[in-house]
Design a protein that fits this description.
460 residues, 19 helices, mainly alpha, GPH family glycoside/pentoside/hexuronide:cation symporter, Growth Hormone, Chain: A, 75% helix
């Protein structure tokens, strides 16, 4: 049988058990809610509730993200090499997920003041969260290549992840601002929010690990140990992975700007409440979830690369449309824009993630080595580095253009230079990065046909 693009489809494997698909997808639910609560709102918490200067807040956040990035391939390498009755991945996921929930709550118990004590406390908490988050996410992202070799089956598996990740985003992006709208963007309000999210996430981690306990596991072939840094160097020399990595860096720079800037943009440019911010983000997340059948269809009928290009173009257009947004804009138009961005984001997120296990399989067929953790570690590492750079540049830009922080969430009137900087950070900057991401993924050539041909060759 041939696809509409003229490529021969391989014989499809039976579907994975629902418990495996649901268990793996569900793993993204607690981590998305925790990461967003420790990311999107944390910079504004530091500047507008604790009174930390914008440039210092961005620097602290970026140091933690850089550590996160450095630790990613190390933990990936370690998870490739251990062996337990639960396999290589689940012990890391259980430990990292539970620690992340505990550290989130601790982060929002910041001391009242202190030129050194307050920044030092925040940095330590962010470093701890980054480490525990990595302990979960790297082994988690290594699993798809181990549990199925089906090209379209991986897309379906990733769709479970996108839906569950979106549900976590409901909590971290939607429910969290609404809780702040109810309890106030104060120290106490933020702590209550963190406790609720941590409790929900803890349940999610436990259920995910339980459902995955009987998931299929790829046999680890006998292979000579390869030094850690040589593994990293050889991985990035694989052309499909190199172009996917570059595209991922640029895409996550886009997300770093849009997600970090949006709570500031709605507060100071649109001048709407955190409750309305939550409504906007819930609308965007709902559209992301509901878009999955469409993008799965696109992946099957065109391919993942072309689908990503379509979704990214739509996302860039949505970002640019914020240029004309102001306080007079009807909320219906604002919500329609959020739905458009969510629909497009569903495609960029799903299809970029679905390409990763294909690259892992490609590497195995070419080199005869299973090192899914190393690839996942590099993949998450570039996400974290891009996030660190984006957040740092955003915070430094706010400081350079005169942004005035505050205490206990009280709105402070901003100079026009800061308002203009916010508008550029939400529109022009992400549109440029997403366009560059499209150029990069245009060079990614790995397809279903190529993998099918490799599978037909004698095994190593």
């Amino acid at each position: 049988m041939k696809t509409p693009m003229g490529e021969r489809e391989p014989a499809e494997e039976p579907l994975l058990p629902l418990s495996t698909r649901l268990g793996w997808g569900l793993g993204s639910f607690p981590m998305a809610s925790l990461n967003l609560a420790a990311g999107t709102l944390l910079v504004r918490y530091m500047t507008d509730t604790l009174g930390v200067a914008a440039a210092l807040a961005a620097t602290l956040f970026s140091v933690a993200k850089i550590w996160d990035a450095v630790s990613d391939p190390i933990i990936g390498h370690m998870s490739d090499r251990i062996n337990t009755p639960w396999g290589r991945r689940l012990p890391w996921m259980l430990t990292g997920g539970l620690l992340s929930a505990v550290v989130l709550v601790a982060t929002y118990t910041a001391p009242v003041s202190g030129d050194i004590l307050l920044p030092g406390f925040l940095l330590i908490m962010m470093l701890l969260f980054a480490t525990s988050y990595t302990m979960f996410m790297i082994p988690y992202m290594a699993m798809p290549a181990e549990i199925t070799s089906s090209y379209n089956g991986r897309s379906q598996l990733m769709s479970f992840r996108v839906v569950c990740n979106s549900a976590g985003s409901f909590i971290g992006l939607g429910l969290a601002p609404m809780m702040l709208g109810l309890w106030g963007a104060t120290r106490a309000g933020h702590l209550k929010m963190a406790m609720v999210i941590a409790a929900i996430a803890t349940i999610g981690v436990l259920v995910s690990v339980y459902l995955l306990r009987k998931a299929p596991r790829a046999a680890r072939p006998a292979q000579a140990p390869m030094p850690f840094f040589r593994q990293l160097a050889s991985a990035v020399q694989i052309p499909p992975f190199a172009w996917l990595l570059l595209s991922k860096v640029l895409y996550f720079l886009t997300l770093a700007f849009t997600l970090t800037a949006m709570p500031y943009f709605t507060k100071h440019v649109l001048r709407i409440s955190d409750a309305w911010l939550g409504t906007m983000l819930i609308s965007q997340t709902a559209a992301l979830m509901l878009s999955q059948p469409f993008w799965l269809w696109i992946a099957r009928t065109l391919d993942k690369r072309r689908g990503y290009l379509m979704a990214a173009a739509l996302y860039g257009a949505g970002c640019l449309s914020y240029w004309i947004a102001d306080t007079a804009e009807p909320m219906a138009i604002t919500l329609a824009r959020c739905i458009m961005l969510g629909f497009a984001g569903g495609g960029t997120f799903l299809l970029s993630q679905a390409m990763l296990p294909d690259v892992m399989e490609y590497d195995y067929h070419i080199n005869g080595v299973r090192r899914e953790g190393t690839f996942a570690g590099l993949f998450i590492m570039v996400e974290q580095l891009a996030g660190a750079l984006g957040i740092a540049f955003f915070g430094w830009s706010l400081g350079a253009f005169g942004y005035a922080g505050g205490f206990e969430g009280v709105r402070v009137d901003q100079p026009q230079s800061a308002i203009d900087a916010l508008r550029v950070c939400v529109t022009i900057v992400p549109a440029v990065f997403i366009a560059l991401s499209m150029l990069s993924i245009g060079r990614y050539k790995l397809s279903n046909r190529m993998l099918d041909e490799l599978r037909a060759k004698p095994a190593h």
